[in-house]
Amino acid sequence: MTMHRDLVINKITDILKSTDSSLEAEFVAMCDDAKRIFITGAGRSRLVGNFLGMRLMHSGYTVYVQGEISTPSIREGDLLIVISGSGETTQLVSFANKAKSENAKVVLICSKSSSTIGDLADKTIQIGTDDSFAPTKGMPMGTMFELSTLIFLEAIVSHLIHEKGIPEEEMRYRHANME
Is the pTM of this model over 0.85? Predict the structure, then answer.
């Protein structure tokens, strides 16, 4: 078991070391400039989006996860964050097109330097490089993208909380109280 844990940790470390760190500040600036933030993804990428949505809400942003019954329509001044390893998921391409048609900004978090959603996006944040996600025994079907993206985004939120001086008590106050 230790061998597999080390394999996963080392792979994530390598991927994050090869991710352009200047993108973190650009991502935060896009969030700060947005009236509202919408997050979407498919499968496990959507689960990573749920993590991000909760943390951004704790940090004081107005956040919606696409597909929830109470999610309003996206409009000009809003930001759509798309998490997609391939940048090609048909439904997510449709969401990006809709956001652009409403003059909302789109940021793609992806494993590819080039993709359909990337062509639509105002900014693409590539996690790792095009060569970072070659098939690795014991790490099936996008595992490394989702885990690396989760850690990348958690680190951004940690930095954001620290830089803005958001006290944990304030975050706890925003946290769900009907769990």
Answer: yes
